[in-house]
Amino acid sequence: MDTYVDGFLIPVATDRIDDYKAIASLAGQVWKDHGALAYCECIGDDLGIPGMVSFNHAAATAPGETVVFAWIVYPSREARDRINAAVMADPRMLPMQSADAALPFDCKRMAYGGFRVLVEC
User: Fold this and answer.
1) If you average pLDDT over every residue of the chain, what do you get?
2) Tell me, which fold does domain 4-98+106-116 have in CATH?
């Protein structure tokens, strides 16, 4: 199976979680409309596990921030490239791409990567 996943780790202001959820809900619909198989955004809850690197540390959260862990599943890397291009051109996404958009997170602090699926059960 050629399934491909984009993963994200995003520090988000805790007082803007509702704003983030609205953006993520719209983004999820856009990605699914263009062919993503799954879209999931999760808010940090149990992040301080002793003996492990915390997601807060990995995301370099500041006081008043929490972590969003998110992923998008695609049929293949080629599909991911095609879908992402369509998403970025979708008019519903344009307000979020504006330089003066008041996003509830700093895009420059978002960790992002594409992953080949190793095990899928």
Assistant:
1) 93
2) Alpha-Beta Plaits (3.30.70)
